[in-house]
């Protein structure tokens, strides 16, 4: 039996890094790249094992798109017994200016950020549960951020530039992830949030890690995760636990 994985937000940044990284692994056979605009998916002619990669239209805040992606992936895996082994929710945004004082944070930007990062992650997870249930490992890894930890936010508040709607959204990602982890532990799901580190992408142009380094760290953590990982927040840079 092969190992199948879906990564959301995978036309660029950490998501695309994960697609390349996972396709390169001999223990992974099907890599579904969820992208809201398939035309924006990069040319993968030179990517090793590109035949493992299938691009699927997936706008995570749109119910119809998410349902249609689940249907497409179910068909690709075989309607009867093929389940999805792992879901990595990587799609995320910072709507509006990245840095803004809390009292100046625009409510529309706040709503958009919460809608994609939190509600979108929830919508994808809940829609793919039936397929994940039939998978061999039942893993859901949500790409969160250390800044979604209230302990870390408190520790770093005076030295970091403020991005309150984003940090609040990642605290909520942690909370909804924990709700799933606690609810589905009884079905042997392994569900946890991961901080990818500070990674140089469009979202974080000053990031210090390359996408390749971060994707390799995340993939290592995700692939080796056992049931003890369920409901624990990890830093993929050093593999250590982050306090909520
Ligand atoms: N970079 C960092 O240092 C860092 C640190 C901590 C956490 N993170 C988290 O890591 C994840 C990936 O971030 P990144 O740095 O790779 O960001 P990025 O380069 O800006 O990529 C974001 C990805 O999310 C997709 N996306 C956004 N909204 C979407 C939607 N509604 N439906 C489907 N896809 C959507 C984008 O697709 P389009 O091209 O279509 O917009 C893009 O593929 C995010 O959850 C982010 O919060 C990043």
Automatic annotation (TrEMBL):
The keyword rRNA processing does not apply. GO terms for cellular component: cytoplasm. Keywords: NADP, Oxidoreductase. It comes from the Eukaryota. GO terms for molecular function: oxidoreductase activity. InterPro entries: Fungal_SecMetab_SDRs, NAD(P)-bd_dom_sf, Sc_DH/Rdtase_CS, SDR_fam. Pfam families: adh_short. Belongs to the short-chain dehydrogenases/reductases (SDR) family. PANTHER family: NADB-LER2, SHORT-CHAIN DEHYDROGENASE/REDUCTASE. This is NAD(P)-binding protein. The lineage of its organism: Eukaryota, Fungi, Fungi incertae sedis, Mucoromycota, Mucoromycotina.
